[in-house]
Design brief:
Blueprint lengths: L16 H21 L6 H8 L3 H7 L3 H29 L14 H18 L3 H4 L11 H19 L5 H24 L5 H19 L1
Helix pairs in contact: 1-2, 1-4, 2-3, 4-5, 4-7, 5-9, 7-8, 8-9
């Protein structure tokens, strides 16, 4: 099972610090406007106005709003990976109060809690995330490719923590877990704005049962 290649929708990567800061403002504005007006009403002109940059600055990086949403999805994945990494560092030190009895070094239960909890936190708080996610919410690509990319990223992040080789078996395990979590979490958020807690707990128990069989 080969990893999905990392995608980029930038026409031109920022080189200077000022250019990178401008790109950040553009993506922040895109995220805010997605929450306010939705994807259909989103426009590159509105993003430029909200970001306080010339429209030409938007087109310097993106040809259209789909590419902009793609880039936001990839930034979401990078930030998600950073959040999970920090949780795993805390778990290894035994300093994560949310890890509970799973806080021992290399415990897959602490890893699973980090993966699910940080996704839920971004789902509830990150601007634009409810629409863009990691690229599977609006017409920026199929659901399959983003979920494969998330699973590949988690395999690379967690293999060392778990003391496992990032081989085909581990990639398959995480892909199944990601697909399952994706379906059930989206069900939870269809049932309640902040996510139906009972469905989330059922999802957590289901993932624990599957991963116990696969990783213990």
């Amino acid at each position: 099972m080969k990893p999905v290649p990392h995608a980029t929708s930038l026409r031109r990567a920022p080189v200077q610090r000022r250019s990178a800061e401008r790109l950040t403002r553009i993506l922040d504005a895109c995220a805010d406007l997605l929450d306010e007006v939705g994807y259909d009403a989103l426009s590159t002109r509105a993003v430029a106005q909200r970001a306080g940059v010339p429209i030409g600055s938007v087109y310097r990086f993106f040809g259209n709003k789909r590419q902009m949403a793609d880039a936001l999805a990839l930034r979401n994945l990078e930030r998600y990976a950073e959040r999970v990494t920090e949780r795993l560092k805390d778990a290894r030190r035994g300093g994560d109060p949310r890890a509970g009895e799973a806080g021992s070094r290399g415990d897959w239960r602490a890893a699973m809690d980090a993966v699910l909890d940080e996704y839920l936190a971004m789902k509830r708080t990150a601007p634009g995330f409810s629409l863009v996610d990691f690229g599977n919410q609006i017409p920026v690509g199929s659901r399959a490719e983003p979920n494969h990319r998330v699973a590949d990223r988690l395999t690379d992040l967690l293999s060392d923590y778990l003391g496992r080789e990032p081989d085909d078996d581990l990639r398959r395990i995480f892909l199944i877990a990601v697909e399952t979590a994706d379906t059930l979490v989206h069900l939870a958020f269809r049932m309640a704005p902040e996510g139906d807690e009972k469905i989330i707990e059922e999802a957590r128990e289901l993932l624990r049962a599957y991963l116990a069989r696969a990783l213990d």
